[in-house]
Fold this protein.
Amino acid sequence: MKYKSTPTQLEQVLPEDKILVSKTDSKGIITYANPVFLDISGYTESQLLGQPQNIVRHPDMPRVIFRLLWETLQNNREFNGYIKNLAKDGSYYWFFANITSSFSADNKLLGYTSARRKPDPDKLNYIQNLYSELLEIEQQSPDDDGMEKAQYKLDSILNSREKGYDEFVLTI
Ligand SMILES: Cc1cc2nc3c(=O)[nH]c(=O)nc-3n(C[C@H](O)[C@H](O)[C@H](O)COP(=O)(O)O)c2cc1C
């Protein structure tokens, strides 16, 4: 079942004391969602489980950030980053995500866990400007060309700060 929400300007600000958790298999198919994630996203458990995690993708998010997310996980590192999600009712919510991998005893990848929490509003301001710039670059060129240009922009910001992405995102 595919749900398609129309984005609205209604924001849900996450409570300070809540963590939104979901787990996926190795392909990004949702296998678990905690009650807070269900509540904020507006889906029931049966609507969410078995769906790709991009069911909550917001069109304002630059594609390059998701490429970075998957490359980071595939390189056996944990991903930290800011993401804007789309709820079923069209509202949006920003969060800081920590995504980690789980392995079996014989080192087979079992899946991933994302723990999302309320972002620092001052940092979010910077991220919102950065992401809208990256999105605009992506939208100016078709297909992967736009994403490469957005990657170039992101890399140039990181280089000017002499930071890798991990350090950048944790210290802005
Ligand atoms: C554990 C885990 C949690 C994820 N959580 C989100 C999320 O909350 N929002 C989101 O847009 N993408 C999330 N993703 C990334 C999605 O799998 C997907 O790459 C992204 O939504 C972009 O989708 P698209 O490439 O189809 O546009 C998550 C991935 C993993 C592995």
User: Anything to note?
Assistant: The mean pLDDT is 95. The first helix runs from residue 35 to 41. The helical segments are 35-41, 45-48, 63-74, 121-140, 143-160, 165-171.
